[in-house]
Specification:
single chain, alpha/beta, 7-stranded parallel β-sheet, 2 helices, 16 strands, elongated
């Protein structure tokens, strides 16, 4: 068995036997076109792994860490994350719609154009992450913090941002509903206030 196929084979066994993948450490592996939906990962570390066209719909990640991995354009719809970390990864164009994320940390990860629609974030943090043109519509954010992230052109339609500190993040050209309910009570700096005034149609003279 080639070392590059260990992860793909163990995922296949886990699906077949309906058993979780537990206490494993995978490095420098590539998985292509795998059906990983509803597979549970417990205390698993993925390092420098690449997932191409993989479907993680409904998968569970518990005390799992992804570091320097690439899961761009993969599907994580309806997945469940708890006590996990995603560090220095690439997930551009990935789908996390209807996902539940609890006590999960994103660090220095690119998630541009990702879809987080109708997901729940509870007790999560994201630091130095790219969310440019991502879809954050109808997201529930509870006790979640963002630091030094790029939210340029992000769609926050029907996502309440009250109490969330965006003062050291980029929020240029964000999109909200016509009533601007989303931005009520969000924390921003004085320079962002000028940008926000434009969004609200206010002219500063």
């Amino acid at each position: 068995m080639g070392t590059d196929k260990i992860l793909a084979e163990e995922i296949a066994y886990a699906r077949q036997d309906e058993m979780p993948v537990e206490n494993r450490n995978y490095k420098d592996e590539t998985v292509t076109g795998a059906d990983i939906h509803k597979v549970e990962f417990m205390a698993v570390t993925f390092e420098r792994c690449r997932f191409v066209d993989c479907d993680f719909s409904g998968a569970g990640f518990y005390r799992t860490q992804m570091e320097k991995c690439d899961f761009s354009n993969c599907i994580f719809s309806g997945s469940y994350w708890k006590d996990s970390k995603i560090i220095e990864c690439k997930g551009n164009g990935s789908r996390f719609d209807h996902a539940v994320l609890k006590k999960t940390c994103f660090l220095d990860t690119q998630l541009n154009m990702a879809n987080f629609g109708q997901s729940l974030w509870e007790g999560c943090t994201a630091e130095m992450c790219g969310f440019r043109e991502a879809f954050f519509s109808e997201v529930k954010l509870k006790k979640t913090g963002f630091s030094k992230c790029d939210f340029t052109k992000v769609d926050f339609f029907r996502t309440l941002l009250k109490g969330i500190d965006f003062s050291d993040s980029t929020i240029e050209s964000i999109m909200v509903s016509d009533g601007y309910r989303e931005v009520s009570g969000m924390k921003i700096n004085m320079f962002q206030a000028v940008e926000m005034a434009k969004l609200l149609g206010v002219k500063i003279v």
